[in-house]
Amino acid sequence: MGAAGVVGIVGLGLVGRAIAARLEAAGFETLGYDVDPAALAAYGGQKAASTEAVAEKARRIVLAVYDTPDVEAVAAKARPDLFIDCTTGDPLRIEALAKKLAADGIGYVEATLSGSSQSIARGEAAMFVGGDSSGCEDILAAIASQRHAVGSVGMAARAKLATNLVLGLNRVALAEGMAFAERIGIDRKAFLDMLDESPAASPAAMAKGRKMAVADWAPESRIRQHLKDVNHMLALAGGTQMRLPLTETHARLLEEAVAAGDGDLDNAAIIRRWEIK
Question: What is the value of pTM for the model shown?
Answer without folding.
Answer: 0.92
